[in-house]
């Protein structure tokens, strides 16, 4: 049980580096990430969404200590990420294939994050059974 819990904590801590780093980069450098010239309003929106991504990554990091007891928070964060992934999927269907980085993001949003959520639920359930916690 403890080994699986630690592996989950490590996986979440490592994977959350991506939204934190990408979100921070987007806040600091804006649309420069793509090299495309955009309006000031689009630039502002890009930085806002980057800050949300940064916040989601930080919130995932907040689940690492005591991860077995943070199921509600983990599920809410997973829902937010998956809804974002569905938005990205709609964009893919409406406008075509994005870059490989965006496809990687889609995979993380619709496959990896829900899989981590299922894993967190498994760990939480095993913890509850082992220690008689509800």
Compile the SSE list and pairings.
Layout: H1 2-15, H2 17-29, H3 40-62, H4 71-95, H5 100-131
Helix pairs in contact: 1-5, 2-3, 4-5
- Put simply, the count of helices is 5
Ends distance: 17 Å
Number of separate domains: 1
List SSEs in N-to-C order.
HHHHH
Strand content: under 5%
Helix content: over 70%
Q: Compute the number of strand runs.
A: 0
Unreliable runs:
none
Average pLDDT confidence is 94
Structural class: mainly alpha
Structural Rg: 17 Å
Explain how this protein is built.
InterPro entries: DUF4345 (IPR025597). This is DUF4345 domain-containing protein. Keywords: Membrane, Transmembrane, Transmembrane helix. The protein has 134 residues and is mainly α. Helices cover 80% and strands 0% of the residues. The protein has five helices and no strands. It has helices at residues 2-15, 17-29, 40-62, 71-95, 100-131. Helix 1 (2-15) runs antiparallel to helix 5 (100-131) and helix 2 (17-29) packs antiparallel against helix 3.
Compact description:
The chain is mainly α.
Give short descriptive properties of this protein.
134 residues, elongated, single chain, mainly alpha
């Amino acid at each position: 049980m403890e080994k699986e819990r630690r592996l989950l904590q490590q996986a979440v801590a490592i994977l959350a580096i991506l939204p934190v780093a990408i979100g921070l980069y987007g806040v600091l450098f804006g649309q420069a990430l793509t090299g495309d010239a955009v309006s000031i309003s689009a630039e502002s929106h890009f930085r806002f969404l980057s800050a949300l991504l940064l916040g989601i990554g930080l919130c995932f990091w907040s689940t690492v200590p005591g991860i077995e007891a943070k199921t509600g928070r983990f599920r809410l964060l997973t829902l937010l990420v998956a809804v974002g992934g569905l938005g990205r999927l709609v964009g893919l269907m409406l406008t075509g294939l994005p870059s490989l980085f965006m496809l990687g993001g889609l995979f993380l949003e619709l496959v990896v994050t829900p899989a981590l959520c299922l894993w967190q639920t498994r760990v939480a359930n095993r913890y509850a059974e082992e220690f008689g916690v509800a």
